[in-house]
Amino acid sequence: MSESPEHLPAPRSTEARSRRARAARDAPRQMARSFVQLKSSVNPGVLVITVLVLAAVMVSVSQPLRNYFEQRADIAEVNAKIDRQEAEQQALTEEIEKYGSEAYLKEQARTRLGLVEPGETAWRLLDPGIDSGADYVPGEVTESDEPETPWYSQLWGSVATPPDAEDEADKDAPPPEGESPNLPVAPDPAPEQ
After folding, report:
1. How far apart are CA 37 and CA 26, in angstroms?
2. What are phi and psi of 116, to 5 degrees?
3. 176 located within any domain
4. Domain encompassing residue 80
5. pLDDT digits (tens, 9 = 90+) for 64-100
6. Is residue 35 part of a domain?
7. Domain total for the chain?
8. Does residue 183 contact residue 116 with C-beta atoms inside 8 Å?
9. What's the whole-model pTM score?
10. Distance between CA atoms of 22 and 16, rounded to whole angstroms?
């Protein structure tokens, strides 16, 4: 009883090989169908839960985002303040460096303290209309506040009168109390030894 080769089962190696080839051919079609096919109806419970989860995520992320943007604004404000202070520091440093110059020191002594170099004549212009003993109330207009002559006439009168025309007796008289006839001058340099 010999069986013919037609009735015998196929060897395992060829059967497995053909099964694998068929699976490889059909796999792309099955994958494409699984990606394309969607459920035709959406469950309302799943939809509500999804919306609630998204809302919770947005609420939980909103506070840190607000803090982040507020802190960025604070950082920008602090950086601007630092820049302003650095510019102010630079200006003050330059002002300090000015005082290293002898010419600047002399200029400041002249303008602020009224000092003069030895041999120079100091002039001080005084307004005779100022009364130091009178009580002045701001906003109150008195008769003495209004000039009797226009300002340009007063100016011309002060320039037109030569200093030699003053009374010689006034020059020899002692100065009034509290006033010094001499203006302050720079001290003489110490003699070298």
Report:
1. 17
2. -130, 155
3. no
4. 43-105
5. 999 999 999 999 999 999 999 999 999 999 999 998 8
6. no
7. 1
8. yes
9. 0.34
10. 10
